[in-house]
Amino acid sequence: MEETHQKVADWLAQSRCTVAFTGAGISTESGIPDFRSPGGIWSQSQPVLYQDFLASAEARHEYWRQKSQSHGDFVAAEPNAGHRILAKWEQQSRLVGVITQNIDGLHQSAGSRNVLQLHGTARQVACLDCDMEAEADPWVKEFIETDRAPSCPECGGLLKHATISFGQSLPPEVLRQASQWAQDCDLLLVMGSSLVVEPAASLPRLARRSGAKLVIVNREPTEQDPLADAVLHAGIGETLAEIDQRIA
Ligand code: NAD
Ligand code: ZN
Question: Which active-site residues does the annotation give?
C-alpha cells in the first residue's frame, strides 16, 4: 500500500495534466450515503424514473418526497478531507479539475473551481418547460409544508431538481468536455465510483486508450480494476492524505 501511495505521488508530481473523476464514494465521509453500499440509498427506496416523473402526479410526489429527504443530508454536509485535498491540488496547479457524478456541490464548497457535474446539481431546481432556475431550498420547504409537488411560478410547468434522473439524457456540452479532459489528461484519478453507470464506465477506458495512467481508489473492487495502473482498496480521505504527504 505504501509503495503504491508513493508511486501515485510520483506520477502526480510528474504529470502535465491530471484529472480527478469522483462518484458518490467521495461524499460518504461527509455523511451522504452512496447508492450501492449496504445501507446505501437503494436499500431504502427506488429512484423515480424520468418518464414516470413526466407521466404521473403520484411519481412527482414520490420524487419530491425522496429529494426532500436527501436535501436534508446535503445542506447539513461539509466537505471532507478528500474534497479538500482535490481543491488544494487544483490550487497548486497539480490538478486540472474534477469530473463528478455527484450532485451534492461539496467539491465547490471545498474550493474546487473547475468542476464538471455530469449529473447536474441538487442545489438548484429548474423548470422543464422554460428557463426558470432557482435555489432548491425554498422549494423543498414549500413541498414539506404543502405536501404537493411544486410547479413553475413563471409558466406553470413541472419543477424538478437540476439533476439528471434515470432515463434522462446527460447535458451534451458537459459530457463533451468531460470526454475531452479524459482524452487530454496523462493521469486520471478515479475515486468512489462503482464504475457501472455510463458514462462513468467509459471515461476511464477513454483516458486509458488515449495513453493516460489510470488510478482507482475505491473501498470495493470495480469492474475497471484490471485496466488500472494502480488500485487502492481503501477510504478516499486517508488515501489522498497519504498520497499528498508523499508528493515531492
Ligand atoms: P455508487 O454508489 O455506485 O458507488 C460508490 C462506490 O464508492 C462504491 O463502490 C463504494 O465501495 C465506494 N465508497 C463508498 N465510500 C467510500 C469511501 N469513503 N472511500 C472509498 N470508497 C468508497 O456511486 P456512483 O458510481 O457514483 O453512482 C451512483 C450515482 O448516484 C451517481 O451517478 C450520482 O449521481 C448519484 N449519487 C450521488 C450522491 C452525491 O451527490 N453525494 C450520492 C448518492 C448517489
Ligand atoms: Zn417554467
Answer: 119
